[in-house]
Write a structure and sequence with these properties.
- The chain contains five helices and five strands, in the order H-H-H-E-H-E-E-H-E-E.
- By secondary structure, it is of the alpha+beta class.
- The protein has a five-stranded mixed beta sheet, with helices on one face.
């Protein structure tokens, strides 16, 4: 029976050791490279969302101003039509009523006690209206004062975008609804978002994957806890923040 010389066996063992060591380091390098790439993408998305708040804020201000001006013009037309004919022309009145109804659809401004939350809800309310989704919001924005404006915008924009994407996929109109609650309980701020659950075959997109990671980063930054629950065809996100931050 052939026996390998001790020197040759030692050489083989050393070679195997170096091979395994090299393989390990290559694997670690690939892991770190992938992690760094994901982190860079996450940071880029985070910064873009911080910048997006200023754009959204300006857009909402323009919409609110135009809606206010339109309402004044409609009120003036209504007054003029009443003075011009007695009784008022029913056809003209119908046109004015229709114009007023259209203006009200775009007057989605909110007054939550927090300007940033007002911007998010106004922006997402218009998006929900265009997609035939009902957005129900019971919000006390005054309890969110400890947030940086850009963080608060990114947090709620991401959560509502995810909820809207889920609601759009529901074929039944009566189930296309999103409930948002923001309140204080004892010494904590509670944020609840309930939306239709996604079908099992509807996988999250890459953008959604990173948006969820941004949300988790913001929750951790403000020492909060995030839990999710899927039950009876609905998906619930619950976040709890302490009201005292060091």
């Amino acid at each position: 029976m052939f026996e390998m010389p001790a020197s040759l066996a030692g050489t083989v063992l050393i070679g195997q050791f170096y091979f395994l060591t090299l393989l390990y380091f290559q694997t670690e390098v690939f892991k770190k490279s992938a992690m760094q790439k994901e982190m860079d993408t996450l940071n880029l998305l985070y910064e873009r969302q911080r910048e997006q708040y200023q754009v959204a804020r300006q857009n909402v201000q323009i919409i609110n101003k135009r809606c206010h001006e339109l309402k004044l013009q409609i009120a003036a037309l209504r007054q003029m039509s009443g003075a011009a004919s007695d009784p008022p022309d029913p056809e003209l009145k119908a046109h004015i009523d229709e114009a007023e109804k259209a203006a009200q659809l775009y007057d989605a401004s909110r007054n939550t006690g927090n300007e940033v939350l007002d911007v998010v809800l106004t922006e997402k309310s218009l998006l929900c209206e265009s997609r035939r989704i009902q957005l129900n919001a019971v919000t006390d924005g005054s309890c969110l004062g400890f947030f940086e404006a850009s963080d608060l915008y990114a947090l709620f924009a991401n959560m509502l975008d995810h909820a809207i994407e889920s609601a759009v996929q529901v074929p039944e109109p009566e189930r296309r609804c999103i409930d948002l609650l923001v309140c204080t309980r004892q010494s904590f701020v509670v944020v609840n978002v309930i939306s239709p659950d996604r079908p099992p075959e509807a996988a999250d997109t890459r953008a959604t994957h990173y948006a969820v990671k941004v949300t988790n980063r913001i929750v951790q930054k403000y020492k909060g806890t995030l839990t999710t629950e899927s039950q009876n065809g609905f998906f619930a996100v619950k976040i709890i923040f302490p009201t005292i931050h060091s």
